[in-house]
Amino acid sequence: MNPVTPSTGLLWVKRGFILFRQQPAEMLTLFFTYMFIVMGLGLIPIAGEFLPLMLIPVFSMSFMQACDQIENGVKVYPNLLMLGFRSEALGRLLTLGIFYVLAVALAIFVSSLVDGGALFDFLSSQKPIDPKVAPDERIFLGMLVAVLTYLLPLMAFWFAAPLIMWKKMSVGKALFYSFFSVKRAGKAFLLYGAAWMLIAGILPALVSVMIAVIFGDPIVVMLTMLPMSALLTTILYCSFYPTYLDIFGKPEISIQA
Fold first, then answer.
1. Of 40, 31, 81, which Cα lies nearest the Cα of 61?
2. What are the tens digits of pLDDT across the range 127-158?
């Protein structure tokens, strides 16, 4: 494991933008294809409630591998999304996905102890959200508690998938190394997270206000924010790769789809 300085966290964000800029259309195509698959999975009765979450480790390796290919000058194609399913590590990645589901369930359960289940009701509600009705203030408390509860599992999950697939670690070993690697580079991750909260929070807010002032139409605002959200999310995914690269080095196994 390579040591990193606190300022490295800001470089991870910058390098995410650089990676995206090299193949923007390809990465956006990969992202939208992934979203289409996730929406399809969500239509499956019962299983659709947890399958998208369980498959995050499998699909996340598609984006990690895509960034590796960009660095190597290899073009990225949507079929890269099937990479994890063809890997000998699929079983371990699915096991990791089960831990994802359990961790999220735990976070929501803990939040329900302080918000009376308001967050769970909000997430599970099938009713359309009325923008004129202010959300129950308990939901924000529940979200805060859920996020804080999920922080420790997130540290264990952060590098687990690439360690399983690229370094052929067991699930337990990958979770262990991921947790302590993130802990060791804690200051860099704090800056990294803070930078992304500013980018994903303030930038869309400023743009939405400008569009609202210019057009005065909430539909135009929504149509503007959706592609911006997709763009920023894709760049965020690209920034995951440099965090791995600076701590564990170049992937030993480079698999092309």
1. 81
2. 444 444 445 677 888 888 999 999 999 999 99
Of 175, 155, 162, 160, which Cα lies nearest the Cα of 65?
162
The alpha-helical segments, DSSP class H, found in the chain are 8-22, 24-42, 51-54, 56-71, 83-86, 90-115, 118-124, 137-157, 160-166, 171-184, 186-215, 218-248
Q: What is the pTM of this model?
A: 0.87
Report the C-alpha gap between 146 and 211 in whole angstroms: 32
Contact 95, 122 (CB under 8 A): no
Distances (CA, A) of 28 to 11, 22, 172: 22, 12, 33
Q: Alpha-carbon distance 46 to 48, whole Å?
A: 5
Q: Answer yes or no: are the C-beta atoms of 249 and 2 closer than 8 Å.
A: yes
pLDDT one-digit tens code per residue, 5-45: 989 999 999 999 999 999 999 999 999 999 999 999 989 98
